[in-house]
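Could you help me review a protein record that somebody else here produced? My question to you is simply how this chain folds and whether the tokens agree. Thanks in advance; the entry in question is below:
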Amino acid sequence: MPEYPLALLLVGVAAGVLSGMFGIGGGVVIVPALTILFGFELQNAVGTSLVVLIWPLSIFAVAAYYRAGLLDVMASVMLALGLVLGSFFGAEIALNLPEATMQRIYGVFLIYVGWRFLEPRKLLAARRDTPARLETPHPGDSAEAHWLPMLSIGTLAGVAAGLFGIGGGLVIVPALVELLRYSQKRAVGTSLAALMPPVSIGAVISYYNAGMVSLAASAVIAIGLIGGAFFGARIALGLPSSTVRRLYGAFLLAVSLRFLLQL
């Protein structure tokens, strides 16, 4: 049994709620929490996070999006293939980087993600009473998924997963919305389905062989993530998520400063 099991369980719940709401794997919560709150080295936190994310913990959230008609099955399959290809290479890059370099890269990555969630242009448009695109349907919702862009997006997401211990949804969801014109909720459902298989198994093996995995901590976090993902999906399907997205973006920007400044 790891130290502070209740705290680890709460980390899993928080990661699960955000996973269900935004189509992310939850690693962007797990990794900073393990490093800042529990004193893990960054590579150990990344490896432990990836172990959590190889299990189909978002199955109930995926089912909720599927029942709502907000999941593109074929796109999810192609994204998953790309994730498998990319995650191993991301892990190999991360394991050969110095700790300080890894932290700064991760800090820059969090700034990008935080900016995406804050959506400052939409916030300014709302304050000026200008209509902003929030949940409007996109042509991509009814179009067939082409294998090449989906495979490319999945591979890039896989590299990010192996590097940073995330599920890859932080790359997939913005790419589907901005490049392929999916609606936000359909992109989230499709991303969660792509992340459900053990797509990061190659990266997990690399981190495990390097001794950078805490199995006990990952087991406790995984338990919390199962329930959290279901409730996160229910929140996303029933409520506007713009306020939560912006709060989450502000949180990520604050965490990024910790990594960039080595606080």
